[in-house]
């Protein structure tokens, strides 16, 4: 695993893109603070930049580095949810502008699987996570279903044997406001 992390770190530090297993499905990733790297992801996916991207963090204690106001309830939701949870926060900071939604909100998931946590911890910055498909196509649930266009378009592919998932589920998505009120976007 460490060898794969080291390869990813080189690519991410150089502004490249990776294809990697996340805590949900295989994702395309890059440095979420680098606008040029984020632009590469949009081009590869043929996705409109008006659609924001999810970013991953290794620890909820790092939210304050990237979210202007972290409502108290966010930590409760993260700690008690039974599967991966993406929370949309109203305002962000220290991220590439093109990773944000048009209203400046940001979708963040705190990962729990070991590979992603170690990668993000060693990189020291959040990583983009978007499904490994061309915009409009169904997200591939397993590595074998990822299109050749995506495979050939990324700068590095993590060894598929590191995929720890046994049951693939998309993350739950909740949108928070600054007062801590929330609504469920995806169960």
Rg (CA only):
15 Å
**CATH H-tier superfamily:** DHBP synthase
CATH architecture: Alpha-Beta Complex
Return the CATH topology: DHBP synthase
Approximate helicity band: 25-40%
Biggest sheet strand line-up = 7-1-2-6-3-5-4-8-9
Strand content: 15-25%
Q: Calculate the terminal CA-CA distance, rounded to whole Å.
A: 32 Å
Q: Summarize model confidence as the mean pLDDT.
A: 90
Shape: globular
Query: Would you tell me the structural class of the helices and strands?
Result: alpha/beta
Spell out the helices and strands N to C: HEEHEHEEHEHEEE
The largest β sheet comes out as:
9 strands, mixed
Structure notes:
By secondary structure, the protein is an alpha/beta fold. The chain has a single domain (2-186), classed as DHBP synthase (Alpha-Beta Complex), CATH 3.90.870. The protein is 26% helix and 21% strand. A hairpin with a 4-residue loop joins strand 1 and strand 2. Helix 1 (2-13) packs across helix 4 (114-123).
Keywords, separated by commas or semicolons:
single chain, 187 residues, alpha/beta, DHBP synthase, 9-stranded mixed β-sheet, 5 helices, 9 strands, globular
Explain the layout of strands and helices:
Elements: H1 2-13, E1 18-21, E2 26-29, H2 35-45, E3 54-57, H3 72-80, E4 85-89, E5 106-110, H4 114-123, E6 127-131, H5 148-153, E7 156-157, E8 172-176, E9 182-186
Helix pairs in contact: 1-4
Summarize this, please?
This protein is of the alpha/beta class and 187 residues long. It has 5 helices and 9 strands. The chain has a 9-stranded mixed sheet, with helices on both faces.
């Amino acid at each position: 695993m460490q060898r794969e992390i080291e390869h990813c770190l080189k690519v991410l530090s150089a502004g490249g893109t990776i294809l990697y297993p996340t805590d949900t499905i295989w994702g395309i990733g890059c440095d979420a603070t680098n606008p040029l790297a984020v632009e590469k992801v949009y081009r590869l996916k043929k996705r409109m930049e008006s659609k924001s991207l999810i970013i991953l963090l290794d620890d909820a204690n790092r939210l304050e580095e990237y979210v202007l106001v972290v409502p108290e309830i966010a930590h409760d939701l993260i700690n008690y949810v039974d599967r991966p949870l993406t929370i949309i926060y109203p305002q962000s900071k220290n991220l590439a502008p093109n990773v944000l939604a048009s209203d400046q909100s940001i979708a963040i998931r705190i990962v729990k699987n070991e590979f992603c946590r170690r990668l993000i911890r060693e990189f020291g910055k959040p990583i983009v996570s978007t499904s490994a498909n061309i915009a409009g196509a169904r997200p591939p649930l397993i590595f074998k279903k990822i299109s050749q266009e995506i495979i050939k378009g990324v700068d590095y592919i993590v060894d598929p044997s590191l995929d720890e998932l046994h049951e693939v589920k998309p993350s739950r998505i909740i949108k928070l406001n600054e007062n801590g009120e929330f609504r469920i976007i995806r169960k």
